[in-house]
Amino acid sequence: MISDMDENIGQVLERLDQLGLTENTMIVFTSDNGSTHPGRDPAFHIGGADPPFFNSTSGLRGWKGSVYEGGIRIPCVVKWPGKVAPGSTNALPTYFPDWFPTLANAAKAKLPEDLQLDGIDLTESLQKGEQTKRPDPMLWEFAGYRGQIAIRDGRWKAVRQGVRSKKPSAWELYDMENDLSESEDVAKNHPDIVAKLENAYLKTRTPEPDFPLPLYDNPS
């Protein structure tokens, strides 16, 4: 799979060269999730992969299908000639909703002034390497795996499991500046932060009868 991916990406890059577009093109390489999770075969994960052997998550918690960092923290490489310095890095936490306003700005596409977006424009951060302030927390909501929610606001990340089940777990809270592996739940020490992040999540929700979320739509 890696060889096939490498070959096809190479064809895209070669065609950009042939068309003389390389110096005027932003190339973004990323993934949709972390390493695949375990399956029925104890020797391999789904798809025949062996992430533990290759340390694919580099000590992060969780796999694909999880809102822990091992499931949602992924590589992202950007090549933008004359804009992004080769070999530079940026530790700003981002997510996919950021790429629509970013690519629109890079292409000088004008967006409606009243358009409400979940993401932020990353072009300045990419070019200057500075941390862009995010007005609202980043949210992840997975209906699968009994329902999961993750909320990231600066250093803090809240996680809740089983939100679509009869026995949802309590909120967990992690300090991502000091505990990237999410090994120490500090929710009991910071109830005010947990409440703030939960409220930020609830402000984004509109109950839908066909797809109810029992924990919040029918609280006990």
Low-pLDDT runs: none
Helices and strands, in order, run as HEHHEHHEEEEHH
Largest sheet geometry: 4 strands, antiparallel
Query: What does the radius of gyration come to?
Result: 20 Å
Q: What fraction of residues sit in β-strands?
A: 5-15%
Principal-axis shape equals globular
For the terminal residues, how far apart are their CA atoms?
48 Å
**For the largest beta sheet, what order do the strands appear in spatially?**
3-4-5-6
Mean pLDDT: 92
Number of strands: 6
| Class per helix and strand makeup | alpha+beta
Molecular structure report:
Strands 3-4-5-6 form a 4-stranded antiparallel beta sheet, covered by helices on one side. A two-stranded antiparallel sheet has the order 1-2. The protein is 25% helix and 13% strand. The protein starts with a helix and ends with a helix. It folds into 2 domains: 92 residues, no CATH class; 80 residues, Arylsulfatase, C-terminal domain. The chain contains 7 helices and 6 strands. With 220 residues, it is an alpha+beta fold. Strand 4 and strand 5 form a beta hairpin. The protein is globular.
Write the layout of secondary structure elements.
Blueprint: H1 2-18, E1 27-30, H2 51-54, H3 69-72, E2 76-79, H4 99-106, H5 123-128, E3 138-142, E4 148-153, E5 156-161, E6 172-175, H6 191-202, H7 214-217
Antiparallel strand pairs: 1-2, 3-4, 4-5, 5-6
